[in-house]
Amino acid sequence: MIENNSLSQIPVSVLDLATVAAGDTFSDAFRKSLALAQHAEGLGYNRYWFAEHHNMESVASAATSVLIGYIAGGTKTIRVGSGGVMLPNHAPLIIAEQFGTLDALYPGRIDLGIGRAPGTDGITSMALRRNLNAPIDQFPQDVIEVLNYLGPHDPTAKVRAIPGEGSHVPVWLLGSSTYSAQLAAALGLPFGFASHFAPTYLVDALQIYRERFQPSQFLKEPYALACVNVIAADTDAEAQKLATSFYMMALGLIRNQRRPLQPPVDNMEDLWSIPEQAAVQQMMRYSFIGDAASVENELQSFVQTTGVDELMVASHIYDLGAKKRSMELVAEMCGVGNVVAH
Q1: Is the whole-model pTM more than 0.90?
Q2: Helix or strand holding residue 332 (H, E)
Q3: Phi/psi at 161 (nearest 5 deg)?
Q4: Which of 136, 151, 247, 330 is most exposed by smallest CB count within 10 Å?
Q5: At residue 119, does pLDDT exceed 90?
């Protein structure tokens, strides 16, 4: 744990899934993501990341690098990246070329967050046709391959990422268990934990990452980010109602009944059983919902307890205006824009 870490002293960033709300088209989702990224930039957020998912009706960020280019092209200063690209779905060279291209277009603003999960179900993984029978040690090799492609020009290399080589796009390892924490520590890379949907191993992963971290050409000291869910509003009652959209989305994941993000409802009592409610609450343990004062207190406790170096916020809110307001409240409580980013 990092001593004396406080909410106002660390950068705060945004995770977006290009969420498709009920009644919206994919084009609507992308336009809303751009509006939110521009709003985040104006408020002083550090990064705006998209996560690769497939075969999910509420998530339009499947072609992650394409979407990153669209958002980076519509903003000026905020870092834009992947949170993350699921490397087992892709050849390392392709990812290096894509992110090398993005870096050439938007120098110094692109992040490459890499994950090990497929970001989808088993059948869709087969449709993606990449590394289905790869050996267990393939992922670390693929990560190192990406790092080499993005590194300095190697005159002896027979395969080069063009664009890509020499770009030194920052590479992050992302995970929901201790596996990526160990690999990030061994390679000396920054690490991000997906505590917004997989809270169980957060503390263990952070401890392993810090204890085993090896300084590298990429990073001299460990740097850890954690993603959490936040729904802030002017009143607690409003925030709790907004959160019902989020609960319905999580309930759909549990039931394997996925659909676009639904408008909020007055209560959830008739929509879930007691066991389902418990399962949703367990999955979403690191969710901070309420008015500004209550959310600030809870986030401050989270930051002090975990000692994270950066906080990333995911907000599954149906209404664009309410989502912008939540971002504004978080910016105010976190001192966003006043922190020198990593």
Answers
A1: yes
A2: helix 320-334
A3: -90, 110
A4: 136
A5: no
